[in-house]
Structures are given as C-alpha cells and as structure tokens.
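BUG: 3D viewer hangs when loading the predicted structure for this chain

Environment: internal workstation, default settings.
Expected: structure renders.
Actual: progress bar stalls at 90%.

Input used:
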Amino acid sequence: MTTNDVLSFLNELDADVRKELDATPKVEDKDQIDVATLPIEARRWHRLSDVVAVVADLKGSTKLGVRKYPSSTASIYEASTGRVVKIFNSFDADFIAIQGDGAFALFWGELRYERATCAGITIKTFSESLVSRLEKRWPSLPETGFKVGIAASQVLTKRLGTPRNPAEQEPVWAGKAVNYAAKAAQSTERHLMMVTATIWEKLHNNDYIRYSCSCENGPSDTIWYEDTIESLPDGDTDSKGHVLKSSWCVNHGSEYCEYILKGKRKRSDVEHLRKNSPNSGMRAAIESKEERERRDQRARRRGL
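Structure tokens produced before the viewer hung:
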C-alpha cells in the first residue's frame, strides 16, 4: 500500500465513522439470544439485562518457554485451556471464547449465577489437580494454575467484522461483566476464585456455596474471605470482592453441585452459622488481617 493509498484509506474510514455517528443504531431488549444469528450488517444491537461472566486466567503462561520447550508448552495449553472450555460446556455456558492464555464464558437465562459459580468452582478444583500432574512431569515448571474471576452486568452485543467473511467476525460484549471478571481473576492467586460484590450479593445466601460441607470439623463459614479488586475504579462498589479458598469436596462436591444447579439454597446443618454469620467481631478481625497480609504481599511483588 502506497502513502497515497494509506491516506485515501484513512479518509474513507473517517467518512465511515461520520456516517456511523450520525445514525442511531437500534437496540432490542432480549431475554435470550442465539449468538450464531447475531446481526453483522444490520445496525441492530441486542441488550441482555443481566449476564454473568466467568474468566479463567492461566498464571505464569508467559514463562512456559515456547522457544525452549515448544512441544511441552503445546501440551500444557491443550491440557489446561482445552479442558476449561470443556468445563464451561458442561455447565451450559451460553457463549465461550479463548482469550489469550485462558478462556471466558458468559451465562444468561435461568440459573445463570448458579451455573457460572459451579463452573468457576470446577475450574479452580481442576486447576489443583492439573498443576499436580504438570509438576510431576516438569519439576522445574514455573508456578502456574488457573485464577478465576466472576462478574455480572447488563450487556450490549452485536457481531462485528467483515460482512461476507465469517472467519473475520466476532460478537462484542459491551458492558462491565467480562472486563470486571478478568480484573477479578488477575487480582487473586492460582487455585482461587474471586467474585465481585454484585456476584457475592447473589451467592452469600446460598448455604451450599457460602459454607463448607460437614466433613472433618463440620460446616464452616471461613471458606470465603473479603479482598479488594484493586484494578477497579476507586469508589466502585464492585471492587469489594470475595475470594473462595475451598474446592469441591471429594465426598460432597457432586452432591452440592447438583443441589446448586437445581436451585436449592438452604441446608439444615448450617442454621447456627447462618444466625451468627453477619460479621462477628472476630470474623471481621481475621478477614482484615488476611487482607492486609495479601496487600503487603502484592506490594512486595511490585517492589513497593
């Protein structure tokens, strides 16, 4: 392309922008959408009032050594990201995409929060077993594993790209959900799942999600702790996140997951925890101490 061609092309793009901004696209409210039939040429967007995004981010992927061990790196990506997509599928995600070294999924419609949460817990549980196998195979492997983030928001969507070339078309998801879920994942550590305040409001009254199972010392309310999603704007209420430490229990995981997906919320064995749960002084002190320690650790990593 010559210099004149580039300038002509830029003038053409500018004319397209002026034309686009002078017209108002149509926005249609939807409860459900078929991603495959989203418009590409029509100036019509679909709006979903509440979409839950789950992001799985693979820690340390840039250190896996594509040049030095290409076959090993390929195997790791296939085993990790490929399996995450399979997990999203198993919980009926409405849209799935590979994103860099991880993947994200969107959930809307019935039981969207429950399906998304079960997918997230399954990914963090899978992450632990995945890393265990990887470290046995490659003892000097850089620290890796999936970090999971979940967020929700209203979303506008339309397919953008080259009209007559499906390979150059992708749906866009305008809204906070995917971005906030990605920031939540980036803000935590491997094998952990962080949710925004909006998600926590939906989850904290579900006994199967809020409390541990009855194994060992009985149900506990210490499997979650508060933490700040520091990369979100100051004053954004969603920045007050919660992090899940626990994974699916080998004894009760399948049972609890089934109950969650059926919409069940109450357990008789946690009534005492539910009554005393609203932030006792000791609980708040423990969470405050944990948050300070994590903040100090992040500062040390940044060299502050």
